[in-house]
Amino acid sequence: MTASLAPSQAPAGRRRSPRRRLGPVGTSVLGAVIGLAFLIPLWWTVVNSLRPGDETFRYLNPLEWRTFFTLTPTLDNYFALLDTDLGRAILNSLFISLVTVVVGLVICATAAYGLSAFTFRGQGIVFSVIILSFLIPFDAIAIPLADMFRDWNLQNTFFGLILPGLGNGMAIFLLRTFFLAIPEELVEAARLDGLGPWGVFRRIYLPLSVPALIGAGLMLFLFQWQAYVWPLLMGTDRDHVVGPVALSNLQGQFAVDYGVLFAASVILILIPLAIIIGFQRYFIQSVSTTGLK
Predict the structure, then answer these.
(1) Which pTM does this prediction carry?
(2) Could you read off the pLDDT of 239-253 as tens digits, one per residue?
(3) Which pLDDT band, with edges at 50, 70 and 90, does 288 fall under?
(4) Are 53 and 260 in contact (CB under 8 A)?
(5) Do the Cβ atoms of 180 and 212 come closer than 8 Å?
(6) Closest Cα partner for 209 from 286, 276, 287, 277?
(7) 3-state secondary structure of 256
(8) From CA 196, how far away is CA 193, in angstroms rounded?
(9) What is the C-alpha to C-alpha distance for residues 171 and 115, in angstroms, rounded to an integer?
(10) Domains in the chain and their CATH numbers?
(11) Membrane spanning segments where (predicted)?
(12) Beta carbons of 220 and 171 less than 8 angstroms apart
């Protein structure tokens, strides 16, 4: 009988993965360090929103405990926001984002259903164009697209601000991949029961794709919530200003109150953060099941 190979004599092809070499403790420590690296800038922003603006950079050089903590927090910066247009801008952003989610999900889910449940000539070309659409940064086409919208008299209208976000290529790709994982036997059984194409879509595809729909809805929401260049080009009057544009308007020409600026940033961060945390498990489920058949 041949002796079993010692761990040091294991074949070269059986190398341990980095995760196994680290072990559970090492992986947890690495994850904690990465999470802390993302949390520190956010925490520093929150702390500086609770102190006067002239103290924002006071404790940066050298770094000390007061850089990330304050013993005299104040809400003056948040009260100062009441005299700005940020409140109206946040309501505009919420309206634009929510309408985009509702209407955009209908459009994206229908397009994904057509690309996954039917076969037609040019299907590969259509899908390639959709893939290409979210590989090209939107800001690269924003200026020529804005010229077209001005010719159509859509500047300073909510319709003009909402329209570009309705058809999201990444959302269509996510939903199509999820639809492809639905068992064909279930679809055939529904057709034998007398359901037509729209009946199968409404009673089979949509109920089974709730996690993917929520994940796609989050993409549509974040796309509109964080948009800056397009609202800056299309929403030039006070009634159609959105959150990111209102935030940039808080910077004065000769002086900047960083305390007020950070307070506005915290508010604009907390709204999508609360939504993401609330739907986190659905988003992770939609992404983790994408590509499984």
Answers:
(1) 0.83
(2) 999 999 999 888 865
(3) low
(4) yes
(5) no
(6) 286
(7) coil
(8) 9
(9) 13
(10) 23-74 (no CATH), 80-288 (1.10.3720.10)
(11) 22-44, 89-113, 125-146, 158-183, 204-225, 258-279
(12) yes
